[in-house]
Amino acid sequence: MKFTRRTILRGAMAAGAMSALPRLSFAATSLEMGSARIDTLSDGNLVLPLGFVSDNPAAKPILERYGITGDAVEPPCNVTLYRDGTNTVLFDVGSGNDFMPTAGKLTEAMDALGVAPEDVTHVVFTHGHPDHLWGVLDDFDEPFFFNAQHMMGKSEFDYWIDPATQDSIDDGRKTFAAGALRRLETLQDQIATFGDGEEILPGIMAQMTPGHTPGHMSYQVKNGNAQAFIIGDAIVNHYLAFAAPAMAAGSDQDPDLGATTRVALLDQLASEKMPIVGFHLPEGGLGHVERDGDAYRYVPEV
Question: b vs e for 243-267, b when ≥16 Cβ sit within 10 Å of the residue's Cβ?
């Protein structure tokens, strides 16, 4: 396998008098897997209150070790593009224009790689949170990836398509539920669902990793002897999730289940030593897991 890190120019900041200003850019990472290829595409970043990471006082020294001392965090958003010569697969689609002004940049990243929406054959979701799902429709509420088969784990789809979820979910996530319901209702006849352990496309195996959401899915991707693991938000940052994986995370809808999943998944990934792609991990999101005493550390590929 071969890793490549590069900087992609997004285009001039503005025309006319501002044309001499620097161009906006983002770092991206590629992984060649035999006859296939993974690219990470930046959808921008989120701006979240620190409580979304953890409100546990024991988290403070770990966060300080990583230079996180303010009241907010700004996690990157890395959409995964997989191409095997037959299928062009997007894992998640970013935020679109309705969530945060710092996110929703996927189309610019696709343009930089020369990939058009009509080129995408499959859209595969890890889960239904806004930064992963809301970019699925265009400004006219039509499917943005109009040639693609859309796919989501059945338990995740059933959770968000149920109108009762808006009544049972916590107040801070009610807009998540409303936004997911609207989008999934629009796509309902175009979504294929699947279960844990199914091979959903050649070389792509689904693995249930619940807790962040009730039906969160991760995906093991294989091509020839090469493999990688797309973790979505099962591991949601590169600091606390690795250094204290059993600590509850504020971003998980079921913090206890999320911690149980995270502990087991990190053990699996460290043992199998396969590359991982994380939606909110730094420097393009592609790296690997190493053991660090009783905990773990994230090592970006360089």
Answer: bbbebbbbbbbbbebbbebbeebbe
